[in-house]
Prior knowledge:
Distance between the termini: 40 Å
Strand order of the largest sheet: 1-4
Structural class: mainly alpha
Oligomer: single chain
Number of helices: 13
Largest sheet: 2 strands, antiparallel
Amino acid sequence: MPKRKLRNNPIQPWAVRYYAMVHVLGLFGTWHAAVHATPAVIYFAVAYFFLVHLSITCGAHRLYAHESYQASQLLQWTWVLLFSGAAQGPIIWWAGKHRLHHAKEDTLEDPHSPRRGFWFSHMGWLVRKYGPKQAPPKYLAHLLGERSDRFYPAKWQSGKKRWVLMPLMALVVPTLFGWYVEDPVGGLLVGGFTRLMFQYHLTWAVNSIGHTFGETKGGTSTNNWLLAIVTVGESFHANHHEEPLNPRLGRKWYDIDLGWYTIKACTYLGLARLPRNTLV
């Protein structure tokens, strides 16, 4: 996007301060992990990262944005609580923005359009006053309309309670685990801020790297096999844009899609149900 137009979308100081704080403390946490943290805290941070990322892909994305499978109330509560640990705002906001992204793919109306530049699609759209704070109502009808009662956990998490849930799940839970293993500072820094820093960048990477590097199928979205490992399958992005209602993003047997494996396991446990035409 031309610079003269970006000037119409001024920087939001609060967003810059917040993400700067996360990065400063996250980098300090990286140093702490290398020098002081107990192994238990490091193992917890890695495990918690993957659990929270599963809530992003299986909950916010494949369930709430696309309704690509059905989930029990127990599974939905699990996703919304873990998603709060990602500190990415209301889950309804996330799902609505993602639907808008699909509707406006490869245009300047995409909330994080790659046509506005790599860094804009990565995180610039979050720190600039850009577009509506919420997606237009038509992209949220499935979550807020007449059928929305079955998505009550998402509506509950997206209310004012999120201001308690996000710091609780993102920072307090890791700190409590650190306290349990006699390393509360490591729990807060490594399990909280360092994990959160990586969680943010790997979520954003699907918008930036996932529209820049990898195998394309037309359009700007790509399949990036290496990135898919650490994003639990999210970066099979070209596949996803080709079939957005399919909960399986990795199409080939060797495509590592941990999100799909989790959803499939939940069907065996009676916690989820797949559409009849799903490629299994």
